[in-house]
Amino acid sequence: MVLNNKTKLTFMKKMAFQSIAVIFSTLMMFAGCKPKNSADAVSGDAAAKAYVAPGKYDEFYNFVSGGFSGQMSVYGLPSGRLLKVIPVFSVDPEKGWGYSEETKPMLNTSHGFIPWDDLHHTELSQTNGEINGKWIFANANNTPRLARIDLKTFRTAEILELPNSGGNHSSPFGTENSEYIVAGTRFSVPPDDVSGDVPISSYKQNFKGHISFVSVDQTSGEMKIAFQLKTPGVNFDLARCGRAKSHGWFFFSCYNTEQANTMLEVNASQKDKDFIMAVNWKKAEEYIKAGKGKKQPVKYAHNVYSDVTHTATSTMMNEVTVLDVAELKDICYFIPCPKSPHGCDVDPTGEYIVGSGKLAALIPVFSFDKLQQAITAKSYDGEFGGIPVVKYEAALYGEVQKPGLGPLHTEFDGKGNAYTSFFVSSEVVKWNIKDLKVVDRVPTYYSVGHLCIPGGNTRKPSPKYLIAYNKITKDRYLPTGPELAQSAQLYDISGDKMQMILDFPTIGEPHYAQAAPADLIRNNGQLKIFKIADNKHPYAAKGENETKVVREGNKVHVYMTSIRSHFSPDNIEGIKMGDEVYFHVTNLEQDWDVPHGFGIKGAANAELLIMPGETTTLKWIPDRVGIFPMYCTDFCSALHQEMQGYVRVSPAGSNVPLTFSLGKVVPETK
Amino acid sequence: MKRMYFLILTCMISVLIFSCGNQNGNTANSTEKPKSMVPDAENYDPKRGEGKFSADNVKIDPKLDAALAATGEKIVNTKCASCHKLTGEKLVGPGWAGVTTRRKPEWIMNFITNPDPMINKDPEAKAMLELCLVRMPNQSLTDEDARSILEFMRKNDGIK
């Protein structure tokens, strides 16, 4: 970071003559020299606007995708303080996710255990088009899956794999009562029930797109693939549901209508227009009811975590119902959309559908009413893959001319304005939906991607802040080697003009994020402890009088408890080489904020972190004879450092009896 | 000149800090209790302790309620026995023998349902913390749980 002399001079002058507010802004300028215009955009009261005093709570929860980390992070707004990283699609040593025996099944797939995936988008559950604070959904992009996170526990409660898919990118967008969460495949691939051993160049004949409509049980939250739509081979990118008047419809952006299978950078950018696919999912439901769906044999994992047994189960499913949209003509319609559309966003009224062509110099806005008229009047421009293509002008409301370069994503404020991110020209542009005129524009750091306004995809946004998430890291912060911090940038949008007030670093590449008013989440019946009386874990020890060590062949089960500050038992002998030892640790605490940890030397499978009232299991295979210390890894009391014990491992065939104890002082023996 | 700017800066920052305080009702203090449960230290009654229970609402029969004591024993095994012996011997916390003769029933029930404020205020609880060095955890006992545990303590102290 280099300060030029001019900046220094300006600084001196301001220091001498102007208010303290200017000092703040100038300090902010120092913090981000590049891009210069972005730092210039910070004005005097920014610090006060983003400041949340120690001990005070933020106004909003911000649920941010952790990108290639596979996790989801939770921030407070406007402070940008990181509150939690929720493990979803990747193992997490901090929380034992994917390491404890109970959580391993959550990462199971038809390909086996997958320790690391790529999480792109987040979607809060809704009722009547408004956030209801129950769940948040996320997509695994690499090995296609959907996750549901329970916002009472901030834990991943369910993961569902998606068959017939490759690259679950167009996901996990939901309908306005969360009737369905959708999952559209980015890569078209041969369906799972036919041999995929075909030439790659046979894309046009053999490769198909599939879009899953996953139903959500409104009480339990349980997800189920209700049906899939089989489409011609293209790349599905992003999606939004219709809302209010357009409830019952879903809109998906797609690119590579050239159906290229190599060098897509060039070959999938040939046509002037690709498509937004409008899906009449109510019609699809009718066809399913009428038995038009084809049962297809497939294989996919459905993983559910229980807060009662504290254990996940993974079930392999083997069938899915598919509707062929080329045969059933009135489910899907293509709307031409300029140049490889990425974002496909629907405004709070449900009337306007905004397509963002990555390579376009304008933003087309489509009208739901006009689309309906065009379909009734059959104003088509032929078909693509058996699906009618609606005439561009017939569905078009209008175009925003010269808004910027490289439009990607649009959010809404519910006051008639749209906010679009521009990747190439690095800015956020606010425009009026009705008259399609640009109202305001602010620079952002290079290469902005997703935007988020709390409730910005609902009928009722809370338009106080807008957050812009980076696509490419730039040196917004102190350098940290070749890899730079990923970043988000916060704008106050409560006034006519957008005002940048804060930068904050994020985990992994922050793709999409959503935000909700803090009270909506924290008053949703948040769980503070797991009631020990409700613990139905088969190996729970609900009290020290239930602790024991049981041998079953070469498997040894330790029913162990932890409380401030000791384990029971804390001395175990009679373990032999060749044994598999399962430490089932029950945390007997019943107060908020008192987890215990468990670690034992040489554990190839990490450690445990056990919440109050919970039982969690560590599998341990001793690799040598000797004495192995174990201890609590999470500071729990003044005597935490005393919370420890020993396990004695003897050679195979040894006659040392299996014993366990706590607080028993025995005479010294050999 | 420089000093003056520093003064102004300090003033501005102070104003900023104070104006941000108490803007909303949020507090990060997880042990916050309704006001009625937190009387001033001067009003603290060391015989009764602090909490829901008083001589008026805790009914004690001279005879033991054996069924209630048995319910209490089950809860004790899960939530208390890790740290308390039934003899007078201290484990993590003090042994229970004689506790019902040393303390009033309402004190015991208040302490086991509302430990944190009492450990901060009660002279006996404070003295015990100095010996044990581990704050007694709040084990999320219901009123009924607390009453049954008290009955089990009475049984342990020889009430028939």
Number of helices of chain A: 10
Q: How many structural domains can be distinguished in the coordinates of chain B?
A: 1
Shape estimate of chain B? globular
Largest sheet composition of chain B? none
- Class by SSE composition of chain B: mainly alpha
Distance between the termini of chain A: 66 Å
Largest sheet of chain A: 10 strands, mixed
Task: Kindly report the greatest chain-chain contact and the residue count on each side.
Answer: A-B, 37 and 31 residues
Low-confidence stretches of chain A: 1-36
Residue stretches of chain B low in confidence (pLDDT < 50, at least 5 long) are 6-39
Number of beta strands of chain B: 0
Task: Pick out its properties.
heterodimer; A: 670 residues; mainly beta; Methylamine Dehydrogenase, Chain H; Immunoglobulin-like; 2 domains; ten-stranded mixed beta sheet; six-stranded mixed beta sheet; globular; B: 160 residues; mainly alpha; Cytochrome Bc1 Complex, Chain D, domain 2; 7 helices
Could you describe the 3D structure shown?
- The complex is a heterodimer of chains A (670) and B (160).
- By secondary structure, chain A is mostly beta strands.
- Chain A folds into two domains: 60-522, Methylamine Dehydrogenase, Chain H (7 Propeller); 539-661, Immunoglobulin-like, CATH 2.60.40.
- In chain A, the strands form ten sheets. Chain A has a ten-stranded mixed beta sheet.
- The radius of gyration of chain A is 28 Å and the shape is globular.
- With 160 residues, chain B is mainly alpha-helical.
- Chain B has a single domain (42-156), classed as Cytochrome Bc1 Complex, Chain D, domain 2 (Orthogonal Bundle), CATH 1.10.760.
- Chain B is 48% helix and 0% strand.
- Chain B has seven helices and no strands.
- Chain B has helices at residues 2-20, 66-79, 99-102, 105-113, 115-121, 123-132, 143-156.
- In chain B, helix 2 crosses helix 7 and helix 4 (105-113) packs across helix 5.
- The longest helix of chain B is centred in the first third of the chain and has 19 residues, at 2-20.
- Chain B is globular and about 35 Å long.
- The relative contact order of chain B is 0.17.
- Residues 6-39 of chain B have low confidence and may be disordered.
- The chains are: A mainly beta (670), B mainly alpha (160).
- The A-B interface holds A 15, 20, 23, 48, 51-57, 529, 531-533, 542-546, 561, 563-566, 568, 588-594, 637-639, 663 and B 5, 8-9, 12, 16-17, 20-21, 23-24, 26-30, 77-79, 81-83, 91-92, 133-135, 137-141.
